[in-house]
Design a protein that fits this description.
Distance between the termini: 136 Å
Strand content: 25-35%
Number of helices: 13
Shape: extended
Structural class: alpha+beta
Number of domains: 4
CATH class of the largest domain: Alpha Beta
Radius of gyration: 40 Å
Helix content: 25-40%
Number of strands: 22
CATH architecture of the largest domain: Roll
CATH topology of the largest domain: Chitinase A, domain 3
C-alpha cells in the first residue's frame, strides 16, 4: 500500500512538472487515499486527469530500477526466452506520442524501416534503454516514460515540448542479427561458433549441415539426424528458402547461427512439413555448417561439372591455364563406375592437350591440395569415337577423381615458358578456326593473349611478345569477321596496328570493315597502306577496285539527289520591267 501510494506521489510530481503543454489542474481518479483498502489500491489503475479534458494514464507496471519513471504494458507477448543485454545491437519498430494530447511525434513505421541502436550505451533516451532491455523477441509493449527519463526540461525540437511525458509503442524485432534480405524477411544471429575462412557456399553447392527448426512458440518442427548432406536449391532440400539464402550469404565453414524466416521465406500461406508448420508461420532454424562441396558448371550446360570436395583451410593457387601441375587421377565410366584409367600420378601443363579438353577446362576450378570430381559428357571427353588408350567406349560420359598435389601457377612462370604456352594456344585456336568453330578459337586466342598481356620483355623477347600479341589480335579479328561483328573486328585490328603499324592482315581486315560501313575514304587509305607493305597484293587490288566502284555508284547517286534538290528550289526568272514612256 505504501509503495503504491509512493509511486502515485511520484507520478503526481512528474505530471505537475509537465503541465506546461496542458495548463490544467490535476485531480486523482478514482480518489485513492491513505484510507483506501489495500486490495482496492492494488486493483486501481494509475489514472491522472487534467481538469479541462486532458487525461494521463500510466498503464502497466513500473520497470525496476527506474524509480517509477518508466511504466511498461505488454500489448503482445514475444517468443519468450532470453532477451537483449547491454551492448547488443537491437532493432525495433516504434511509434512515439505525447501523453498530454496523444499527438504523434515520430514513427519508424512511417519510414518503413526498423530503428537499430546499441542497448545500454546511452545512444537513446534512458527510458528506452531501461524498457527495451525487458523485452523478448517479437514482443510488443507500451512504455510511458517520465520526462527525466526522456528529453527533460529541454525537450526535443518543435514536436516534444520541455518536461514532456512520452508514450512509445515498441516492437522488438531482433538483436545482434544481420538482415539477409532487404525486406527483413530473413535474419541471421551468429551463435558461439564463428567458423573459419571467409568464403560462403553458393546456391548450387552441397552443404553438410546440422539443423533444428522451431516455431516462434519453441515447438520443434524439423530436425536433422546429425550432419546431413543437402543439395541447395534442389526440390529435395529440407531447408526453407530463407535458411538457404542465409547460409549462402553469411555462414562460413564451422559456424553456427540462428536463422529467422517470415512465412514468405519459409512455408508461406499454406504451412508445411505435414501440418507441423501452420499457415503464415514464422520459423527459426538453428543451423551449423560443417563444410560444403563447391560445384561449378563450367560450360553452363552441365557438360563439364566440377565438384570440389570440402573446403581447404589454407589458400592454394588454382590449376589455371598453362600452370604446371602434379596430380593423382582416376577415371571411371559414369554409367557403371568401372575404372578405365588409374589411379595414376601425372605431371601436366594445363591446357597443353595431354588430357581431354573438358577435363583441362575443369582443372581450372581446382586448387592446390583440393580433392575433386570432374564429370564430363561424352562430347567433352572422348566423343562419339571413344578411345582405345585409355579404353573408353563411344559416347561415354565419364567421371575423373582428381587430387592436385603440386601447382606452379602461371604468374610464377618465366617469360620464355609463357611465350611457348601462348604460341601453343594460338596454334590450337587456328585449328578450331579452320574447323569453323570460331567460339572455341576465340577462347584459345584469349588464353594466349592473357598469358602475355602484361609482359614487355627485353631485346629479342620483347620483339616476340609484341609480334605474338599483334598476331592474336588479327586472328581474333578474323573470328569476329566470320561472325559478322564488324566493329569488334576493326577494334582488334586497331590493337594489332598499335603494336605493329605495318601488319598487312590488320590493314586488310580493317579496310574491309571500313568498306562494309561505307567509309570509303578510310577503306581506300588502308588499302594504299597495304600496298606499301605488299606491293603485289592481289587482295588489296581487288578491294581497291570494289571501293572505286562503290564510290562511283555513290557519286552518281549523290548527283541525282542534288539535281533533284536544285530543281525543286530554283526560283522562276523575273520578267523585265515595263518600259516607261519618255
Amino acid at each position: 500500500m505504501k509503495q503504491r501510494m509512493r509511486l502515485l506521489s511520484l507520478l503526481l510530481l512528474s505530471l505537475t512538472i509537465g503541465l506546461s503543454s496542458c495548463h490544467q489542474t490535476l485531480y486523482i481518479s478514482p480518489g485513492l487515499t491513505q484510507r483506501t483498502p489495500q486490495a482496492a489500491v492494488q486493483a486501481a489503475p494509475l489514472s491522472l486527469r487534467l481538469r479541462g479534458g486532458c487525461e494521463a494514464k500510466f498503464s502497466g507496471e513500473p520497470i525496476e530500477g527506474t524509480d517509477g519513471a518508466v511504466y511498461k504494458e505488454i500489448l503482445a507477448p514475444g517468443a519468450g526466452g532470453e532477451g537483449p543485454v547491454s551492448g547488443d545491437d537491437v532493432s525495433v519498430h516504434y511509434t512515439g506520442t505525447l501523453l498530454s494530447d496523444g499527438s504523434k511525434f515520430d514513427s519508424s513505421h512511417d519510414r518503413n524501416a526498423p530503428f537499430t541502436f546499441k542497448l545500454g550505451k546511452g545512444k537513446v533516451i534512458k527510458g528506452w534503454d531501461a524498457g527495451v532491455a525487458t523485452m523478448t523477441r517479437g514482443e510488443k509493449a507500451k512504455f510511458t516514460i517520465r520526462s527525466d527519463f526522456a528529453y527533460g526540461p529541454q525537450g526535443s525540437g518543435d514536436k516534444i515540448p520541455p518536461n514532456s511525458t512520452l508514450v512509445f509503442e515498441v516492437e522488438l524485432l531482433r538483436w545482434n542479427e544481420k538482415e539477409v534480405t532487404l525486406d527483413g524477411g530473413v535474419t541471421l544471429k551468429p551463435l558461439d561458433k564463428k567458423g573459419t575462412g571467409w568464403r560462403h557456399p553458393d546456391k548450387s553447392d552441397e552443404v553438410f549441415v546440422q539443423y533444428t527448426g522451431k516455431l516462434a512458440s519453441g515447438e520443434v518442427v524439423a530436425e536433422s539426424e546429425g550432419f546431413e548432406l543437402v543439395k541447395l536449391s534442389s526440390e529435395g532440400s529440407p531447408l526453407p528458402t530463407g535458411v538457404e539464402k542465409a547460409i549462402c550469404k553469411e555462414m562460413k565453414k564451422g559456424s553456427n547461427a540462428l536463422i529467422t524466416c517470415t512465412p514468405e521465406y519459409a512455408f508461406g500461406d499454406d504451412g508445411g512439413l505435414g501440418g507441423k508448420v501452420p499457415p503464415k508461420a514464422t520459423v527459426l532454424y538453428e543451423v551449423e555448417l560443417k563444410d560444403w562441396n563447391a560445384i561449378y558448371d563450367v560450360d553452363k550446360t552441365g557438360g563439364i561439372l566440377v565438384k570440389c570436395l570440402g573446403q581447404l583451410d589454407t589458400y592454394g593457387p588454382l590449376c589455371d591455364d598453362a600452370s604446371q601441375v602434379k596430380l593423382t587421377m582416376e577415371g571411371r565410366l559414369a554409367s557403371s563406375g568401372e575404372t578405365f584409367v588409374g589411379p595414376i600420378d601425372m605431371d601436366i601443363t594445363v591446357g597443353d592437350g595431354a588430357l581431354p579438353e573438358g577435363l583441362e577446362r575443369g582443372l581450372e576450378k581446382i586448387k592446390k591440395g583440393q580433392h575433386a570430381l570432374v564429370t564430363l559428357t561424352s562430347q567433352n571427353a572422348y566423343g562419339a569415337q571413344g578411345s582405345s588408350d585409355p579404353p573408353v567406349p563411344p559416347n561415354s560420359d565419364v567421371v575423373f577423381e582428381i587430387t592436385a598435389t603440386e601447382v606452379v601457377p602461371t604468374y610464377q612462370l618465366q617469360l620464355s615458358d609463357k611465350l611457348v604456352a601462348a604460341e601453343r594456344r594460338k596454334d590450337q585456336g587456328n585449328v578450331f578456326f579452320k574447323a569453323g568453330d570460331t567460339s572455341q578459337a576465340l577462347g584459345k586466342y584469349d588464353k594466349a593473349f592473357k598469358l602475355i598481356q602484361y609482359e614487355q620483355g627485353e631485346g629479342e623477347e620483347a620483339d616476340k611478345v609484341k609480334a605474338l600479341k599483334s598476331v592474336v589480335h588479327v586472328n581474333k579479328a578474323a573470328c569476329y569477321d566470320k561472325e559478322g561483328r564488324v566493329e569488334d573486328s576493326m577494334s582488334e585490328c586497331n590493337k594489332a596496328l598499335d603494336l605493329k603499324p605495318n601488319n598487312a592482315k590488320a590493314l586488310f581486315r580493317r579496310g574491309k570493315g571500313y568498306l562494309a560501313l561505307n567509309q570509303l575514304d578510310e577503306a581506300m587509305s588502308d588499302m594504299k597502306e597495304l600496298l606499301k607493305v605488299e606491293p603485289n597484293s592481289a587482295a588489296a587490288a581487288t578491294q581497291m577496285a570494289l571501293i572505286k566502284s562503290k564510290q562511283k555508284q555513290q557519286d552518281t547517286k549523290d548527283k541525282a539527289v542534288f539535281a533533284k534538290m536544285f530543281k525543286k528550289t530554283a526560283a522562276p526568272a523575273k520578267p523585265p520591267p515595263p518600259e516607261k514612256p519618255e
